[in-house]
Amino acid sequence: MSSYTPKDSTDYYKHLSLFWTDITPLMTRKPQALTSIGPMRAFTANSKKISTEMVEINEKILEFNKYLTEYYQQLTETWTDAQKKVNLKAPKIPQDAEQIEAFKRVWIDIFDNDFTDLFDSKKFGKNYGKLVSMELELTKHWNNITNVILQSANLPSKEEIDEVYKEVHSLKKRITRLELELKKRGKSNAE
Amino acid sequence: MQSESRVDPRIIEEILKFSKNVIDAPKLVSAPDEINLEVTPHDVVQEIDKTRLLRYRPQTDKQHKTPLLISYALINRFHILDIHPQKSWVRSLLEQGFDVYMLDWGTPTDMDKYLDFDDYVNGYLDSCVEHVKNESSTEQITLQGYCTGATLATAYASLHPENVQNFIATAPVIDGWRDTTVISNLAKHVDVDKMVGTIGNMPPEFMYYCFSVLKPFEQGIEKYVNFFKNIDNPKFVDSFLRVEKWLGDTPPIPGELFRQWIRDIYQKNLLIQNQMRVGDSLVDLKKIDMPIFTQVAVGDHLVSPECSMPLHYAVGSQDKTLRVYPTGHVGMIASSISQKRVLPELGQWLAKRSK
Question: Given B7, B111, B194, which is nearest A133 (Cβ)?
Answer without folding.
Answer: B194
